[in-house]
Amino acid sequence: MNSPAPSFQLRPLTIADFEQVTSLWRRTDGLSQLESAEELDRFLERNPNCSIVAEDDGTLLGAILCGHDGRRGYMYHAAVTVLARGRGVGRAMVEHCLAHLKSLAIQRVTLFTLDDHCPAKEFWKHLGFRHRDDIAQFAYDLKQFD
Ligand SMILES: CC(C)(COP(=O)(O)OP(=O)(O)OC[C@H]1O[C@@H](n2cnc3c(N)ncnc32)[C@H](O)[C@@H]1OP(=O)(O)O)[C@@H](O)C(=O)NCCC(=O)NCCS
User: Fold this and answer.
1) Is residue 131 part of a domain?
2) Which of 123, 124, 125, 126 to mutate to test the pocket of ligand 1 (most atoms within 8 A of CB)?
3) What CA–CA distance (Å, rounded) separates 54 from 52?
4) What CA–CA distance (Å, rounded) separates 13 from 33?
5) Does any domain span residue 66?
6) Considering only CA atoms, which residue is closest to atom 15 of ligand 1?
7) Measured between alpha carbons, how far is 68 from 6 in angstroms, rounded to an integer?
């Protein structure tokens, strides 16, 4: 039996979506620090057609940021509105990003979750991502660099 066609559409996220997607990300638990409009614009310019929104007749259902540095791919802020969860929107957005990165010859995709509070760890495992416990992350805030 054929599965029914999904009741949502995917399209590239653009800077015109800034207010809407930022509002979704703000309402969503478990996401890391959000970008300013300028940062998002720069990210999208550097990674054309990588980030995705899901919509149903123009209503935003979900969004994900995706990009690469020429070697590794990265995904951030995967979020689906509470009402739209469990309909395959998250999987469709992630698989779209994976296919796009693969078409660009990127070999691995990494994402970061907040250790204490990420309700979606099981979601990532379910989609085939492996949890890496062999890596310690170091970060340097450039505002402290003169
Ligand atoms: C995580 C999130 C993006 C999933 O979106 P979604 O649209 O509800 O997910 P889908 O309906 O596409 O589910 C895809 C698959 O993952 C499974 N799944 C979804 N959430 C899951 C969870 N929390 N734990 C385990 N499996 C999960 C589904 O059962 C489904 O399985 P199947 O395709 O094999 O039938 C959504 O719940 C969300 O926005 N959560 C809050 C934000 C968040 O935590 N983001 C990640 C930041 S690290």
Assistant:
1) yes
2) 123
3) 7
4) 18
5) yes
6) 91
7) 28
| Helix 37-46 / helix 18-27 crossing angle, nearest 10 deg | 110
Q: Name the residue range of residue 46's domain.
A: 9-144
pLDDT tens-digit series, residues 68-120: 999 999 999 999 999 999 999 999 999 999 999 999 999 999 999 877 666 78
Does the Cβ of 118 fall within 6 Å of ligand 1? Answer: yes
Statement: residue 1 has pLDDT above 60? no
Q: Count of domains in the chain?
A: 1
Would you call 50 helix, strand, or coil by DSSP? coil
The answer to whether position 13 is within a domain reads: yes
Residue 57: inside a domain: yes
Report the separation in Å between the CA atom of 94 and the middle of ligand 1, taken as the mean of its atom positions.
10
Token pair recorded at residue 45: 């310019």
- Domain at 128, CATH number: 3.40.630.30
Q: Whose CA is nearest to atom 21 of ligand 1?
A: 123
